[in-house]
Hints:
The structure holds 3 protein chains of 3 kinds.
Chain A: H1 22-26, H2 31-60, H3 70-105, H4 113-135, H5 166-194, H6 207-239, H7 252-286, H8 293-306, H9 322-350, H10 359-382, H11 384-390, H12 394-424, H13 430-456, H14 473-503, E1 565-567, E2 570-572, H15 576-582, H16 598-611, E3 615-618, E4 621-624, H17 626-644
Antiparallel strand pairs in A: 1-2, 3-4
Helix pairs in contact in A: 2-3, 2-4, 2-14, 3-4, 3-5, 3-7, 3-12, 4-5, 4-16, 5-6, 5-16, 6-7, 6-8, 7-9, 7-10, 7-12, 8-9, 9-10, 10-12, 10-13, 12-13, 13-14, 16-17
Chain B: H1 3-12, H2 25-51, E1 69-70, E2 76-77, H3 84-110, H4 113-144, H5 152-183, H6 192-218
Antiparallel strand pairs in B: 1-2
Chain C: H1 26-29, H2 35-41, H3 47-53, H4 64-97, H5 114-141, E1 151-158, E2 161-168, E3 173-178, E4 180-184, E5 189-195, E6 200-202, E7 211-213, E8 219-223, E9 229-234, E10 247-253, H6 255-266, H7 275-285, E11 317-318, E12 323-324, H8 327-335, H9 337-340, H10 353-365
Helix pairs in contact in C: 4-5, 7-10, 8-10
Amino acid sequence: MASTATVATPHHVAAHKAPTGIWSWITTVDHKRIGILYGVTSFLFFLVGGLEAILVRIQLAVPNNDFISAELYNQLFTMHALTMIFLALMPLTAAFFNYLVPLQIGARDVAFPRLNALSYWIFLFGGIFFNIGFLLPLFGGESQAPNAGWFAYAPITTRTYTPGLNMDFYVLGLQIVGLSSIIASLNFIITIINLRAPGMRLMRMPIFTWMVLVTNVLIVTAMAVFTIAVTELMFDRMFGTNFFNPAKGGDPMMWQHLFWIFGHPEVYILILPIMGMVSEVLPTFSRKPLFGYNVMVFSGILIGWLGWGVWSHHMFATGMGPIADTFFALSTMLIAIPTGIKIFNWLGTMWGGAIRFTTAMNFSIAFIAMFTLGGISGVMHSVAPADLQQTDTYFVVAHLHYVFFGGTVLGLWSGMYYWYPKVFGRMLDERLGHVHFWLTLIGMNVTFFPMHFLGLFGMPRRIFTYADNLGFNEMNMLATVGSLMISLGTLVFAFNLFTAWKRGRVAGPNPWGASTLEWSIPSPPPEYNFRELPVVRSRMPLWEGDPTKEAAIPHGRHEEDTQTVSFAGKTAEMPFPDDESKMSAHDLGIHLPPPSYWPVVLAAGITLTFGGLIFRPLDGALHNLWYVSILGVVLTAVSIYSWAFEPGH
Amino acid sequence: MDHAHAAEAHAAHPGHLDTTTGLDSRKMAFWGFIGSECLLFGSLIATYMGYKGKSEFLGMGPYPHDGGWKNRAGEVMNHGILDIPLTTISTFILLMSSVAMVLALNYTQRGDRKNSVLWLLMTALGGSIFLGFQVYEFTHFYNEGLTLSSNLFGSTFFLLTGFHGAHVTVGVIYLITLAVMAQRGLIPPAKALNVEIAGLYWHFVDVIWIVIFPLVYLIK
Amino acid sequence: MKSRVNLFGPRWSALPPEPDVPGRSLASRLGLRSAPLLAAVLAGCSEEKHLQTYPQTIYAPRSEFADKLLDLQNLITYLGVAVGLLVFAIMAYIMVKFRYRPGMPEPEQIHGNTKLELAWTLIPALILAVIAVPTVRTIFETQQKAPDNAVVVDVIGWQWWWEFKYPVDGGRDTVITANEIHVPVGTPVHLRLTAGDVLHSFWVPQMGGKRDLINGKTNHIVFTPNEPGIYLGQCAEYCGDSHALMKMRLIAHDSAGYREWLRNEASPAPEPTDSSIALGKKLVTQGACAGCHIIQGVPTMVGRTGPNLTHFGRRRTLAAGIVENNAENLAAWLRNPPAMKPGAKMPNLNLKDEEIRYMVAYLQSLQ
């Protein structure tokens, strides 16, 4: 039994079924519920980030536009990036980590369930805090969201050049959400290393779980560097230090190095889990195993490792000197090799297969194509001298959107279509799915492909408008039209997501005929995941292995077969999963960690502690909401102690 | 199984854990946390080293070791602002507190409640004395006019040693909490992991100081 | 790196080069360097037409620095497109050939193939090596120390304008101007870049790559323009509200023209020739302007925060390259600078229209 087995105490839920109601969601420590919370919250933030992008695109649709002021534009493009990276894409991947990793490794929950809940609540509160700057007009002020770009180069971010609250929201908001990521990453690393079902050696883990492991090692290390960079900026702004104060010798290069040492692993944090997801989807719908599993694992580890050595390719224009330029150009080219290997392995997976073009599969295939394009423009950037014409232009905007949108987002959507049935027990509508797919794929190319040319034809990035006679008009209009297509597709998707939950086709345990452990349990899974923890003897337990020797793993590859499952020696037919999921853990003698409200209270305490540091210009004088911080500290201390001594844990 | 039986079972089979590696998840998580903290302090140290020697120092000379700086009264001082002998003593006390920590863990594992409480408190005491020296040093610097915002040295020095001091403070609170728990009999040998993890934290904080001390105080 | 032949025949450049100046290379004038792009995108167009449509394009190099960068860009574009097409072709084949058809047998369960793995590790590595060699060579070639005969210009970036300082007379004197940088053709130009307030980036695409302006650091660009003309540039590092409106002109002259420009620029401001200009001078030099601007030869102008206005009338654009320098635009600027440039440090001085008229006359007289 996994080590999360604990004592059943009076805390446990009285009813003999899964708890319902808002309070049960607020106090949940169940990884599945936390995964759903992450997923819903981050998808909503994705829509917010998308709205910010649409406003940017409307402003840029025509030259010399005055739809949005320069000040607001600068906030919008900054928040678009911050929202997408920290509040949408990272938490969406976290949603998948949360939901799937215990299921894929045959565990009942993560190693530290309350810590898991804590990282969600910190993320939610931090995400809201981040956006308060936009809400200030409701209180009679000006909009003061972060506005110096997501990589916030000093010294414009110092108080001298950004006296308003904008960058205070940046530093404080990032401290809060950064904490969320670090806590979650520790949890996942330990879960994957320590909570695997018997027989699941590392090289038998699903490839998605492997990529989750590498990603979280990157998170726990890279975010620490970012924490210091942001702390130094925070101290500059709030306590008068000189880290980035040129007047006292502060060096803008110090910020850039610290930032990009975090920033580059960050982009691998955003893509490696997706590569893992796609590596699960492709074999299922090609009906063949992943081509080169070992190589895929090692290339993932290699990318994670090499990703630490390329950061200054973001700084080719800063004049680091020819030796540094050479080193980083070459290291960046080097990292293209394991990346290319993955692409060919995916093609090898599909080659000779029997491909079913479900929406999930379509998105994974599109991912390969779009990520290839993004990788090619990335290699172009690695050529340092040529990069001097590409960097800080729309060419880079094209590159990053091909890898972030064409890569991360398309891969996430593939994962959503693939695993939605497992989470909600219902299939997403495939017809709407195809509409979503084509609108998104065509829309993204219409939006971002012209940007390669815009950049090389001389359009810098982060400009709120452009002149009429530079030839940028048509391509910008095209990009705006494309962005509207993307929005339409996303709205179709949102509709699908929020309605299929109640009205979609009922899904059995394994609607796709997939091979990994999560498909061996009912959809949605019962609270305790596995009635009996499986013993694993192969990498694809549902496709390979001996049914007579591996109890509790239903074998069979085709959708029809999975309705008949071999379970502890007995053959049962549908609808046993429904009956089964109505039995509570208590009835089955399985002990699960009881719910707790300390995570949400501690998250509130942490948010208040940081939030109270925000300076509030009041009639020219500067006060910070120190009393809020004090309350936060007290709440934090009380929560930590109560948590540590909470009975039942 | 209820609480008592589970505890008995664990006490009867110490080290037998149901995890894939056989190691306790909490200990492993703590090592992960230490890994993250290594990068945290690494970045602070990198910032310090990157800015070393680059600041205007209270009016004259770039180094905190050299003379030629002006104190608040405007007098030119011909010695460095760092008090190395004093800091050497406080460093020694911090290192000795790690020895106390080892003893505390040892006694906890052997079930010797009286001595485990004693040595936990001794560790906390050592940490507190170190903090006392830090407070004295910071106050002295402040009085001489060296603050967070004076120059690059002020900023990097106070942030780096301040972060370290904050970690020591959290450690002292942690140790005192454990001492109180031990006094109440809440830390039998079966729960020695709680003290072991505190020990990991304390030794880590010590090791960081062993890196900081030469880089900041000894090397010019 | 050899250029490819332009499939659409040779083109001629609009301006013939000066006799005593190397001028643009033949490859450049034949539009050969732009060929890959033009062939793909603007079929049948010449480099000149491309430049007319896209005045800030990198595909119209006018210096040896820009030439080298474009050569590299073309190399990686060719290779990138080839790799992309290959991957797409394989994918298209796969999607047609291996799609599921009812009744087809279960596919062979292949787990991998070591030979293939080696192949698709080594071949990309070779392609990257092909890219790496010219990359490293170009890095070093383009970051050489400037030759002794180079024309040196110190560039300081401010929110949101460019300060250009020319050390003259062996360094004993400095000619200061703003937003228009003049350089001679055929002589190396050495820009020494630094930031005055926040980060900026100097970019004139047809002269070559960009370089950031960073506080406390001096960056360098060395290039030799090879064709006279007026070239557009723009700040390429986010620097605040009017980052989009921080532009410049780079004007390359033949050597005689450059010397003439420099001599004129070094001279003090011309005196007023009629009464309205004289009145304008009084308003400008004894009013608020004096606190921020300098006009050489006028002692009351002591300001250092704004651009040097000594020969403002000669500049083709105003407010850092965003509008043509004519009476109407100048009046609009004086009336309300922050309206034209969000966040501009030059405030709205609430000048009367009549005052503006005289000030415009004076400023335009500063030839």
